[in-house]
Amino acid sequence: MTAHPFRTTLLSCVAFLAGACATATGPSSEEDIVSSEEVVVETEEMSPSRAMHERAIVMDTHLDTPANLVLPGFDIMERHDPALDYSQVDLPRMVEGGLDGGFWVIYTPQGPLATEAYEAVRDTAILRSLAIHKMVAANPDYFEIATKSTDAARIEGEGKRIVYQSIENAYPLGEDLSLLKTFYRLGVRMVGPVHFANNQFGDSATDPEGPDNDGLSALGFELVKEANRLGILLDGSHAHDLTVYDMMEASKTPIILSHSGARNVFDHPRNVDDALLLKLKETGGVIQMNALGAYLKVLQTQPAKRAAIMKLRKEMGDVDQMTEEDYQTYLETRRAIDAEFPSDMADFDDYMEHFIHVLDLIGPDHVGVGADWDGGGGVVGMQDIAAFPLITERLIDAGYAEEDIKKIWGGNVIRLLGEAEEYAASLKE
Ligand SMILES: [Zn+2]
C-alpha cells in the first residue's frame, strides 16, 4: 500500500501524541487535522472512503478500555502494540482509525447476590468511573466527558475524543436504585442490566442454568423505569431474549444492543435472531455489531490453553493489583501461552457477514458499531481500532450512501440519546 500525503500527516501526528515530537508543534496539532481549515485540503488528498470516514462522527458503543486504564503503567496517550500487551484502544490509534470516541464501559463481573458483595462491587464500579474521569482530566486537549446527545458533534468539532460512559452489568447497583442517579451524575448514559449470569435485575443470555425470572425481575422493571426517568439508554446486550423483549416493552424510549450479533448468521445466545431484530426496528432501537470471534462463527476451542491462562491468573492474581514488573512478566508468560496454542480466529469477512445481514434486514437507521474492544473483540484483518476505516470502505462497496454511513457510525446512537433525554425532560414539565 502506498502512503499518501494524509497518511504521513496522520502518522506524524501519532508520533507527536506519543511524545516523540515533544511540544514543538504545539497542542493544537491534532485539532488541525480534524477541525481547522487545513482539513479541507487534507481530505481532498485522502481516498474518498477515508474522507467520508473522517466526515462522520465515528463512535463505538462498547469500549472496554477503562479496564486497561487501571493496569500498571498503561498510558492512553501512547501507542500500544496488541501483539505485546493485547490492548486495542489508545489515542494514537483512535486518530489513525478515525475513531472519535464512544461509550467507555464500567464493567464488573457477576458475583453473589448478597449485601457485602454489592458493597464491594459498587466501589469497584465507582472507581472505574473515576479512572475514566482521570483520563479525561489528565488530557483535556484530547478527551472530553460527554453527557448530552448534542455533546458528540460539539466535541468532535473541537477535535477532541468523545467520552460517554456506560455500565455493563447493573449488578453494582445492588438493590438500591437511587445509586443509578449517582452514576448518572458521574456521567453514565447507558446501562445494561446483566452480564454472563442472571442477577437481581433479570436473566442473562448465557446463564448455564437458563432463565429464572422469565426476563426482567420486578427490580429489573424498576431499573427500566428509573433509567427512563433519568434519561439513561437501556442496553440489552448480554440479556436473555426474554429480558430484551421485556426491556423493549417496558422502556418508554428505544433500547440499544451495544455489542451483539446476528443469530441467523451464527447461532449463539449472545446473538439475537431476526424476529427480535424486527421488533427492535419496530420499537426504534439500534443494534451495534460485535466483533468477538467466538460469537461470529464456530471456532476451535482450546481447553489446554484456557487451563494454562487460568493457572497463570491464579498464580499471579489480579492484573490491576500487580507491580509494573510483575505485569510485564505476566504478559511475557501470556504471549508464550499464545505461541504454544495459536488461536482459531474469525476474520473481517465473518464480521461483515453479520453486519450486512442485519443491515439488509432492518436498515441503516437501526445498526451501528460496538466491537467489544479490549473486551474480547477483534478479528483477523481488524485487530484494533486502527482498522476502522475498513468498515466504511465495505459499507460503501455494499451500496450505502454517506447519509446512511453517518447514521451507522454515530447518528443512530445520538438519536437514541436524544429520545431518552426528551422523555426524561418531559417528566419534569
Ligand atoms: Zn460484553
Commentary on this structure:
The chain is α/β, with parallel strands linked by helices and 429 residues long. It has 3 domains: 1-46, no CATH class; 57-299 and 350-428, TIM Barrel, CATH 3.20.20.140; 300-344. The chain is built from 18 helices and 10 strands. It has helices at 5-17, 29-35, 38-45, 48-55, 66-69, 82-85, 91-97, 115-138, 151-157, 178-186, 218-230, 241-250, 274-282, 303-316, 324-340, 348-362, 389-397, 402-428; strands spanning 59-63, 101-107, 143-145, 161-168, 188-192, 233-234, 256-262, 271-272, 286-289, 367-369. The strands form 2 sheets. Strands 1, 2, 3, 4, 5 and 6 form a 6-stranded parallel beta sheet that branches. Strands 8-7-9-10 form a 4-stranded parallel beta sheet. Strand 4 (161-168), helix 10 and strand 5 (188-192) form a beta-alpha-beta unit. Helix 4 (48-55) packs across helix 17 and helix 14 (303-316) runs antiparallel to helix 15 (324-340). The longest helix has 27 residues, at 402-428. The protein is globular, with a radius of gyration of 21 Å. It starts with a helix and ends with a helix. Residues 1-41 have low confidence and may be disordered. The structure holds zinc ion. Residues 168, 238, 259, 372, 375 line the site of zinc ion.
